[in-house]
Amino acid sequence: MTGLVVAMVLTLASPLEPARAAYQSGELAQARTELEALLYPLRLDGAALEAEAHLLLAATYHAQEDAARAEHEAVLGLAASDDAKLDPLLYPPDFVAFVERVRTLHRERIAALAAERRPPVLVPSPPPAPEPSPALALPGATPPSRGWYLVPFGVGHFQHGRRTKGTVLAVAQGTSLVVSAASLSTALALRGPDGRYSAEDARVARKLNASYLVGAYAFAALYAYGVLDGFTFTP
């Protein structure tokens, strides 16, 4: 029965108890060995227990007058648990003052190490955007062919939505074609039954022929411009 009670007490005892007892009894080398074995690699569960182990190791280094290692372990202990309290019955006053000085001097480093220890906050990713449904092919959605530019009177420009230039070409080509056709038909109507002009009609016919040629050349030039504009000048 006594053995069972001892086993339960040993089971419930803190894993730092042997190192703490060695430190209190002045066996600093043994305390240092126990603590380093627990911390490197870490074999302790919980931030509070880890912080206590680092501070106890810092106190061991401090007692051995190894200030650099004592300061390093104190920083690690405060980063593991910034609320760690030093037991005045365990630690001497000079070590308690040493830890408070380390807390003040290395406040930023302690905060950075503490931040690295915190688990990352997982932000839920936004739901995926719904995929756009494929657009239905509408009749006439295909761009019109450039072959429409071969048709006179600005038809190609109208088909491609260029209404202003289509209107200008339609009016200009229509006017030149009407002038040319009217001049030619009038000139032919002035001929006599024998196919010749009288002396008076010959002068009028010459002017009508000139008007016919000007209108025909103007129509041809405007037509050529409309084709070139559609095939070459338009991207």
Summarize the entry for a quick read:
With 235 residues, the chain is mostly helical.
Please explain how this structure is put together.
It is built from 10 helices and no strands. It is mainly α. The chain folds into 2 domains: 15-117, Alpha Horseshoe (Serine Threonine Protein Phosphatase 5, Tetratricopeptide repeat), CATH 1.25.40; 146-233. Keywords: Membrane, Transmembrane, Transmembrane helix. This is Tetratricopeptide repeat protein. The chain crosses the membrane at residues 168-190, 210-228.
Radius of gyration: 52 Å
Major sheet description: none
Mean pLDDT: 79
Strand content: under 5%
How does CATH name the architecture of the largest domain? Alpha Horseshoe
Order of helices and strands: HHHHHHHHHH
Structural class: mainly alpha
The figure for the number of domains is 2
Organism: Hyalangium rubrum
Protein name: Tetratricopeptide repeat protein
Keywords: Membrane, Transmembrane, Transmembrane helix
Question: What are the SSEs and their pairings?
Answer:
Elements: H1 2-12, H2 17-24, H3 28-39, H4 47-63, H5 67-80, H6 93-105, H7 107-117, H8 155-159, H9 163-189, H10 199-233
Question: Features of this protein?
Answer:
Tetratricopeptide repeat protein, 65% helix, membrane, mainly alpha, transmembrane helix, single chain, transmembrane, Serine Threonine Protein Phosphatase 5, Tetratricopeptide repeat
